[in-house]
């Protein structure tokens, strides 16, 4: 029990230190600026004209093509079109952004030797878990910022904020954290494995791409194993898109156990790694 | 006295190269041990295993009764790892505060502790500086400062004065010496260095590593029973008449030349307890001037006497 308390305390300290990195360091502010640029473009060209976009023929055809007529009606069920468009784009964009933004969880410290100072004072597992938790908190902050901006646009257009909008925003925020969690955990694993953030990103893209290609090839010959696709990180994204509201949480188990498994592997890897 | 480090038949290989081969030793509470050896002898490998950065291939290690890397050692074991750098995004003070927090100090106590350890290495003015803004020597001193946060019972320092200017190297030696005498048996040190002179001043135990093997785990004592040593540094090179005079001194066992103008004398202290006085009187009587007389052998002579 004392070990668990120490692990949690150290994890919390590492997470807090990562949050300070976002707001108080140059690299953190650069991450913030990059996020603002990406979401600024999205705001300008998708979220502000959301009502028109959802009504547009091209968008409805695209959604209907992917998810059938049910998909577009579910998207229209969100309490504000801005939130629906935010939901749609975030689900696609965030996993990819997460790979890039969280690639430096462990490798710079290992390469620089800072991990030697840290592991004299905490376990390697708390370093992995703390950095992961920190990155999740940082992403949570960035998602919250953009979501608040979307809510502001939606309330301005609708002439006020409704409880349904707030509830939907909370659902979106929690769901997006669940979506990025396994991708952040993948980067925890790869950043413990290689020497730089660039290599970690490359390895993640190659592994995910190659894994998907091999799985497709395997399923082509053995179609009975089609269910394996549903275990790929991010597999729930395609199922989440045509859902809305609290019903989205019925898919929460998959990213949670994927995250736990990947973090377990990252802890195991770092515990065996020479520093 | 309790055993702080116990290594038993420790071995480590990197591919075909043997870094450590069946290294066994123990370090007692209050010891200040020197780890000496040429480049590639396995000093840093041994340090890395003790700190838990590397795993040994075989053999066993225990520090304060725990395995290296154990959470139970957090705060009890401190180290200056070779070539470890601070995070460039944060100031030195912020990082030392954070290390203090990881060691269980409160926010306020961690700040006070940072102030204390930075003052120990004369870096108080650099608290808000980032590592990139510091010179190599300052970064090294900041890294030494992190090793003194809290109340460690065992401090491992890998080349603590390498890269420091003479004044700060002296300051670090004085700091280690002061802490080891102030805290007595509460803290033990293990120091690796190429600077034998430095280790001789600080350490009471010597571990000599050569090609991964511990060849002479010895106490840094200056006597071997009744046989005692004196190291004499003359102002001029010793000539044959002087050597002949010294041979006649009662109690002398042997006299052999050391480095430039240096002579190493061994004598029987039971037979002639005042041998040093006799030696000085002999030199004065015959007009030989000397620069210094050291009781005992230098560590260098002990380790490399064969050469």
Automatic annotation (TrEMBL), chain A:
Signal peptide: none annotated. GO terms for cellular component: plasma membrane. One of its GO terms (molecular function) is ABC-type transporter activity. The keyword Signal does not apply. The chain crosses the membrane at residues 29-47, 84-107, 128-154, 166-192, 199-222, 251-270. Pfam families: ABC2_membrane_2. It comes from the Bacteria. Keywords: Membrane, Transmembrane, Transmembrane helix. This is ABC-2 type transport system permease protein.
UniProtKB/TrEMBL annotation, chain B:
The keyword Iron does not apply. It holds the Pfam family ABC_tran. CDD domains: ABC_DR_subfamily_A (cd03230). GO terms for molecular function: ATP binding; ATP hydrolysis activity. Keywords: ATP-binding, Nucleotide-binding, Transport. Belongs to the ABC transporter superfamily. This is ABC-2 type transport system ATP-binding protein. The lineage of its organism: Bacteria, Pseudomonadati, Pseudomonadota, Gammaproteobacteria, Chromatiales.
